[in-house]
């Protein structure tokens, strides 16, 4: 039977999930149900009914380094190798769609989910994600890049409106997705929770139809984030294919009713059903051995892949007088709780039940040529002051030649659903490092964090190796880097400010109200620091090596640049050559320089290689809002090649024949012209956005799209008590366990309308309106409406299910 021959009811049923992780198939049309699973850095195949936050038990799988760490490799081929292993495990665990990679732009260092995202730059994010997608889909498994789009904070993430000018959105926040779609052709895309300029992402025709499909040529399935759908009818009209998880049959009835009323074209329903059916047929996994544990040989091989990825992603941030690699026979004091109890991934939906775990203490102890003088905990994991732990670490340092101290962010700091409150690591760790530096012994820091942290002791330590969140094999990879078996070759994929106050949007992030206004425009990350002249701790693209490299002989033609990179040392190693461009003088508003290409270059001792970086559709373009089109300005462009955004080693000019002459920037942009976005006035922001932008105050009344957390301002006692109780409970659990209370955070961030999407059909839209009455002080009327609505909804669900079964 052809899909078009199915009834409207049957096709509507295909557009929402059957359970937490399964789609609805259709036996009459030969369309199987398929399984989706979280998995940006490891397959989280849950047992039983499962949950969306990663709280339930899941099958063992390899935990690879997170995206924020893999990005530091600047090696799309390495991401593809990791993707191949991920796709293999997804296939063997009977998963059809792997929900990753995450490639939202890192707008601010404190976003709680930064560890899941690649970079502050769309070139790095896009090409790294494309590599991962290619690897996953080589197994016949669909990758699912997320979260589309303009999703940059966890606070109010289901009830936030990202307000952004069109040019910044296109050039910064969408380009990474564009590169991934055009280069890797993912079969599925996941939308974000937030609104974009007032329209929910999953029902945003501008994003899903005009840009994703019409402009980029995407022909796959668009799935909502879990609970991220708002109106099922508007989503289908706009290009949203599948609503997850199961909302019961409420959405099905809404779609059927809209077709019958003539407010939804059946052609749109057919198109969305065809997109879902395509994934079902593309990703069949019959014959898979659905074992709870990976086979031993596969587990071992993939552990080795995870180690290889971690080895190529660690970044040497400091190395005074060749402290590293550690010399043979050295006596090492190993200090820090995380040296013994490893932290190698973040919290939330991406958390993987690792097949194996390592810790640095054990790995250094078994490393030939390293004498471990002892271990000291050094600090309390939860941040409690304990001078005895510091004294123990200092005493141990006296018995060693060098101290290896493992410090960084704890489990509470980086999680889905919760933004960081500070860029600092716990003070007890800083106190320990200061005490160790005071001993006069060389102190080597192994730094664990999914995003930048402040380093108040930077000047005092001898070396810093940043390993990020390095996956289950991160400890052995770190031991290899410390001892020189591996030469660190990672480069930072994001800028590290000296202090949080230096970040361009530190004054308005995260937005606590409904509107998250992207006031800084295009000046994100290095685009801000280089244009405004703000000093940083480590620039974008920075990374040291045990080797030394030189660049020479830059040549430019109409298609790209060529230059020579030489390893001037006796140690084989790799570096990342980076191409930046600066637009013609007198042209449109631009940052001082922008990354437009890169190459990971592996060189033997004293070897030279000619490196070529080609121009592409992204190199010289800008988006013009007046013509609603991409253009290239003619004129003299400056091309810069370097080892990071500040260390420019080769420069040339290049005459570009574009399709428009340089257009002077509008003087009304004021402070934007120098990148000094902290000084931008409301009038200058209006010039950037093209319209007046202002954030509303606290709501007088609450709607279906205001989060539960906002009820703290409700005049209704019950609603206010619910919000305050949940807030206190989350803080208490986090303090007691050292882990964020993800369930409570999800509820606090959730607007009532999401209840109709997350309760397997137990709550419908009429019951949501009853809940809103409670928030608006009509407590008893709301409770009565809710109870009556519950019974009506139950009867309607039974009728719909019976009708479907009789088709």
Automatic annotation (TrEMBL):
Keyword Lipoprotein listed: no
Xref: PROSITE patterns: GLYCOSYL_HYDROL_F3 (PS00775)
GO molecular function: beta-glucosidase activity
Any single biological process term in GO: carbohydrate metabolic process
Key word Hydrolase present: yes
Keyword tags: Carbohydrate metabolism, Glycosidase, Hydrolase
Ranges where the Fibronectin type III-like domain occurs: 575-645
Subunit organization: Homotetramer.
Similarity-based family: Belongs to the glycosyl hydrolase 3 family.
Designated name of the protein: Exo-alpha-(1->6)-L-arabinopyranosidase
Lineage: Bacteria, Bacillati, Actinomycetota, Actinomycetes, Bifidobacteriales
């Amino acid at each position: 039977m052809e899909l078009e021959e199915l009834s409207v009811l049957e096709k509507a049923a295909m557009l929402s999930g059957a359970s937490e992780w399964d789609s609805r198939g259709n036996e009459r049309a030969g369309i199987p149900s398929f399984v989706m699973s979280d998995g940006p850095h490891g397959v989280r195949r849950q047992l039983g009914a499962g949950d969306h936050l990663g709280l339930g038990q899941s099958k063992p799988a390899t935990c690879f380094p997170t995206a924020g760490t893999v990005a530091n490799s600047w090696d799309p081929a390495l991401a593809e190798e990791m993707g191949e292993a991920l796709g293999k495990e997804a296939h063997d665990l009977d998963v059809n769609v792997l929900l990753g990679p995450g490639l939202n732009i890192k707008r601010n260092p404190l976003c709680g989910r930064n560890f899941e995202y690649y970079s502050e730059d769309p070139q790095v994010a896009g090409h790294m994600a494309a590599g991962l997608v290619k690897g996953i889909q080589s197994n016949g498994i669909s990758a699912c890049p997320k979260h589309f789009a303009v999703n940059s904070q966890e606070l109010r993430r289901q009830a936030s409106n990202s307000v952004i000018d069109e040019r910044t959105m296109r050039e910064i926040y969408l380009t990474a997705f564009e590169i991934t779609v055009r280069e890797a052709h993912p079969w599925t895309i996941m939308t974000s929770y937030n609104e974009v300029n007032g329209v929910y992402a999953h029902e945003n025709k501008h994003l899903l139809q005009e840009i994703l499909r019409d402009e980029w040529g995407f022909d796959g399935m668009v799935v909502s984030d879990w609970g991220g759908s708002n109106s099922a009818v508007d989503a289908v009209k706009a290009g949203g294919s599948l609503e997850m998880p199961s909302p019961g049959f409420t959405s099905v009835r809404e779609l059927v009713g809209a077709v019958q009323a003539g407010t939804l074209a059946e052609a749109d329903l057919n198109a969305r059903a065809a997109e879902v059916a395509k994934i079902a047929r593309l990703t069949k996994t019959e014959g898979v051995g659905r074992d709870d544990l990976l086979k031993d040989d596969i587990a071992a091989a993939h552990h080795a892949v995870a180690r290889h990825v971690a080895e190529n992603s660690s970044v040497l941030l400091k190395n005074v007088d060749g402290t590293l690699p550690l010399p043979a026979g050295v006596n090492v004091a190993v200090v820090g709780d995380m040296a013994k109890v490893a932290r190698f991934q973040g919290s939330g939906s991406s958390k993987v039940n690792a097949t194996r775990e390592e810790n640095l203490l054990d790995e250094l102890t078994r490393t030939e040529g390293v004498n471990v003088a002892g271990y000291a905990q050094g600090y309390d994991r939860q941040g409690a002051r304990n001078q005895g732990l510091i004294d123990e670490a200092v005493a141990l340092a006296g018995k060693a030649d060098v101290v290896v101290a493992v410090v960084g962010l704890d489990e509470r700091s980086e999680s889905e659903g919760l933004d960081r409150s500070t860029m600092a690591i716990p003070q007890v760790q800083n106190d320990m490092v200061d005490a160790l530096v005071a001993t006069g012994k060389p102190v080597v820091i192994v730094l664990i964090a999914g995003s930048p942290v402040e380093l108040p002791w930077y000047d005092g330590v001898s070396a810093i190796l940043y390993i990020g969140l390095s996956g289950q094999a991160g400890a052995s990879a770190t031991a290899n880097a410390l001892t020189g078996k591996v030469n660190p070759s990672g480069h930072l994929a994001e800028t590290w400010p000296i202090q949080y106050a230096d970040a361009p949007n530190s004054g308005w992030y995260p937005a606590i109200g409904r509107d998250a206004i992207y006031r800084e425009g295009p000046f994100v990350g290095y685009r801000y620091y280089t244009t405004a002249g703000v000093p940083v701790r480590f620039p974008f693209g920075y990374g040291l090596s045990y080797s030394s490299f030189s660049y020479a002989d830059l040549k430019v033609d109409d298609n790209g640049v060529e230059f020579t990179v030489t390893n001037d040392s006796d140690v084989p190693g790799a570096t990342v050559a980076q191409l930046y461009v600066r637009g013609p003088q007198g042209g449109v508003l631009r940052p001082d320089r922008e990354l437009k290409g890169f190459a990971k270059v592996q060189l033997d001792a004293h070897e030279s290689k000619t490196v070529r970086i080609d121009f592409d559709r992204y190199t010289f373009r800008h988006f013009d809002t007046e013509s609603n089109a991409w253009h290239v300005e003619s004129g003299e462009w400056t091309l810069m090649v370097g080892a990071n955004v500040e260390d420019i080693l080769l420069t040339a000019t290049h005459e570009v024949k574009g399709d428009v002459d340089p257009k002077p920037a509008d003087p009304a942009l004021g402070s934007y012209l120098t990148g000094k976005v902290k000084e931008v006035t409301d009038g200058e922001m209006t010039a950037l956005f093209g319209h007046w932008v202002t954030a509303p105050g606290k709501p007088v009344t609450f709607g279906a799209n205001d989060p539960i957390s906002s009820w703290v301002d409700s005049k209704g006692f019950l609603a206010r008590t619910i919000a305050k109780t949940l807030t206190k409970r989350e803080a208490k659990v986090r303090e007691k366990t050292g882990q964020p209370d993800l369930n409570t955070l999800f509820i606090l961030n959730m607007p009532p309308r999401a209840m109709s999407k997350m309760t397997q059909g137990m709550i419908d839209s009429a019951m949501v309106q009853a809940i809103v009455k409670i928030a608006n002080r009509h407590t008893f009327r709301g409770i009565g409406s809710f109870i009556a609505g519950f019974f009506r909804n139950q009867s309607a669900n039974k009728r719909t299910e019976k009708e479907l079964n009789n088709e």
